[in-house]
Amino acid sequence: MFSRVPLSKITLIDLLCLGFILLPVSNSVGQVPLYIAGVWGLIAACRGQVHLKRPEILLAALFALILVLSTFTSVRPGNSLSKLNRLLLFPILIAVPCACRIPDPRTQLLKLFKAAVLGVVLLALYDLVRIPFEVRAGTPLFHTGNMTAPQVYMIVLFLLLGLRAESGRPGRATLLLLIVLIAAGILLHNKRGVWLATLITLPVWTLWSRQWKTLLGMVLICTLAFSLPFVRERLHNVRDNLSPRHGGRYTLWEAVAPRLISQYPFGMGFNASEHEDFRAIIDQVNADLPRNERYHLEDRLRHLHNNLLQIRLELGPHGVIVWSLWMLYALWLAFRPAPRELRLLRGAIACALLALLLNGIVEYNFGNSEIFMNYLMLFGMLHAVAWPASAAAPVPAPPPAVPATSGQNTKDN
Fold first, then answer.
1. pTM reported for the whole predicted model
2. Pseudo-torsion of CA 330, 335, 340, 344, nearest 10°?
3. Which of 1, 121, 212, 284 measures 20 to 30 Å from 26, CA to CA?
């Protein structure tokens, strides 16, 4: 018979690990333990177990406030209000350093890293069954992928490398198998932004960790990847994306973004943009152009495929300034000199965050709830490793010892 684990034995780190395991497989299921962990962390913070005056927390709180205020001036209040439940995720940023306080940040972070790896293994096993089955049923390979999964693979790749560098586990054979699974997942989802972000960030990890074999292994994997026909085709089509006739990012960045931002200088409101707004702009632009120079716009596009531009469009200049300061501070926190005992773990977290932000140049990944939770988890882990002594409330100094008086019997009577 299996013994039941009493609820009193479940800890905050257990909830976060469970969320990390479930989130890649099911966003709706994985959110549940993370919501609970966020509330738990917020209560712990109110009790003084973690400082709330750290810059990363203050910037996050200010961004959340701007987000809420934008709903009052939103051009589509219903759209804005429908996504305000995302505010309930912000306490994850506090829950992680709270959970990593006892017994020490290194031990707890290793648990989170292992949970993330386990979650992505489950995702890989699912994808390696689902994608071939859909292709066999007649679905083109490009349409079997999505935006979220490859970014999760990318994040966990760096956490896996950090786990290996820090603890020596998993072993070489298991490490190779996991890297092959992650590489296959990244490739099969056909997202060139993730490919590029991963390729740029891997040398950064190598320089930080001095794990030179990692870079060599990745070069071999990339060489094999470039031999695949669908990879070469996707890379060859990059120049099509830079054409107004394609109707993708070039059209959004060159034609839609500047005109729509000037139309709403203080922001449209959180989650307020729709495809019809983009279509109206393109119709106006095309009206003054010859037929062979007109812009095409892909169907169903409703965001600008860029974090900075979309946040500027939704929240105005004040929103994008606060967001930029938040991200820049997080990067400074990530890559500043680190204590020796936490250097490799911080480097892995830093590279995962850097890769996400690089992918955010060509994708509005800050607006995806699952990726947003990963952002918050990474921010929380950075807090834990950057301020290991500050996670706990200040402990009052012990009273000074009373010197023994000469000739006085100090033994108990």
1. 0.89
2. 90
3. 1
